[in-house]
Amino acid sequence: MSLFAMGFLLVILQPSTAQFPRACANTQSLLRKECCPPWDGDGSPCGELSSRGSCQNILLSQAPLGPQFPFSGVDDREDWPSVFYNRTCKCEGNFKGFNCGECKFGFSGLNCTERQLRTRRNIFQLTTSEKDKFLAYLNLAKNTPSQDYVIATGTYTQMNNGSNPMFRNINVYDLFVWMHYYASRDTLLGGSSVWRDIDFAHEAPGFLPWHRVFLLMWEREIQKITGDENFTIPYWDWRDAEDCVVCTDEYMGGRHPTNPNLLSPASFFSSWQVICTQSEEYNSQQALCNATSEGPILRNPGNNDKSRTPRLPSSAEVEFCLSLTQYESGSMDKMANYSFRNTLEGFADPRTAISNISQSGLHNALHIYMNGSMSQVQGSANDPIFVLHHAFVDSIFERWLRRHRPMLEVYPAANAPIGHNRENYMVPFIPLYRNGEFFKPSRELGYDYEYLQEPALDSFQEFLIPYLEQARQIWAWLVGAAVIGGIITAVLTGFILACRKKRRGTSSEIQPLLVESEDYNNISYQSNF
Questions:
Q1: Strands 107-108 and 87-91
Q2: What Rg do the C-alpha atoms of the chain give, in angstroms?
């Protein structure tokens, strides 16, 4: 990752549901290091008068981090969000939001007491009107200024530690592009030095929970600007696809007739401008991404480096990935072997689960295959295919959670790369979300996937899979135990028969004692069995 990406991070360091809340982008909030805006419903900070929440000190995790980032106090994202704020709204019950004015994911209603479950669907299963509505919503987000959030155009230091706020408006879609960039930028070390081996959203355990929150927040912002409370992100099931079947003017934009790197002028996505893609330039200037337009979306699917990504992922590769029992392993970064997360992310071979960073599998394969804006980490969310792709990646994560049913403790509590421990707050979200809070089934967060809503029998078979897998791994021990058990049974049976034969010649005075002994042996035999 580039220094530009790091600069971008510094720009965005104030808290918000999706970057910096407008209500906290001022000198007073920055100098007080407090982001506790009033809730419109009663005018009190965090809606405290209505028992929705209160302004409280942020409790940071003290768990040790991995060795990947050997610095301290040089990056605004360290111990997020304490560089900018050490007090934010802590919401009660099912309330959430930077001012406790919204509901937690999965709840709705005036008092956030109504459970909801929305379904994400395959984009090719949408009706023409549903598909056209989705595309219109994307375009609306690209052309609607965010009412609640702004982005920073300078680092905390450049803001004179808060006394000189530097912010600007941004549209709803680009807000999320910037957020993705901010989390994955490089660390600026001063002069022309940068540290590239850092990412708060990729290459570590938080990759899947982080993008899960990102999509949920994106979904909610679309619901807010459209008034369509039932909107959900569709997904593209790319397993075994021979080419980019969504790359048509009917869907996400076809190929330009004369320039294969551009989108067809028949698609309104061809007029979109990208932001935060010139990371090396920002690094060299020690500047931050300020969301200035940087040209059209680039995409040339299939004309990528075939030695790195020869094709799109297969169903067999996805199934192998799902069979992995460990969520994380070893160094818990892109070098991890037999890690479900690392294999799904694409840094491990999807046929062996051995780390191989010279290849790009599964999630990474899609990004490389698109051969354009999608292929650069910091700016990848500029291409609207990003949300379709990550919705399907999230569904694979969901399948793994349902199949293996891990306890929360499976998610690493310590020694993960910076920002990725279980109790770390995700960069750069405010209200604050911990990584471990989204290591749970999607239905608990209010959504499901159409293709995962299977009949009861299939669900039962899915439930049995992990137990059958464990049985397969220990079958030799089971057979051995059965053989030994058979031998013991035969010996005991012979012993009991011998005792009975001996009893027939015993006096009547001791018969009751023999009966008690026989009953006791029978009970012990049953217990042993």
A1: unpaired
A2: 28
Rounded CA-CA distance 51/48 in Å is 5
Phi, then psi, of 465 in degrees rounded to 5: -55, -50
Q: What was the pLDDT predicted at 497?
A: 57
List, in sequence order, the alpha helices (H) in 143-298.
Answer: 172-184, 207-226, 279-285
Q: State the distance between the two ends of the chain, measured CA to CA, in whole angstroms.
A: 60
Q: Which residues of the chain have pLDDT under 50?
A: 1-18, 456-459, 462, 468-469, 472-473, 475, 477, 479, 501-529
Smallest CA-to-CA distance from 211 within 405, 389, 340 is with: 389
* Half-sphere exposure of residue 241: CA atoms within 13 angstroms, side-chain side: 18
Give backbone dihedrals phi and psi of 149, rounded to 5 degrees, phi first.
-130, 155
Q: Write out the two tokens for 83.
A: 């560089």
**425 phi/psi in degrees, rounded to 5:** -80, 140
Residue 294, both tokens? 């940087």
Distance CA 212, CA 201 (A): 11
CA-to-CA separations, 151 to 179, 314, 355, 364, 429, in angstroms, rounded: 9, 39, 36, 28, 13
Give dist(CA 340, CA 331) in Å, integer.
Answer: 13
Q: pLDDT (tens digit, 9 = 90+) per residue, 455-514? A: 543 445 545 555 544 554 454 545 455 556 566 666 566 555 555 544 444 443 333 322
Nearest to 379 by CA among 308, 241, 282: 282
Model confidence, pTM: 0.83
Q: Could you tell me whether strands 149-152 and 167-168 are parallel, antiparallel, or unpaired per DSSP bridges?
A: antiparallel
Residue 2 CA to residue 197 CA, distance in Å, equals 10
Alpha carbons 186 and 86: distance in angstroms, whole number: 24
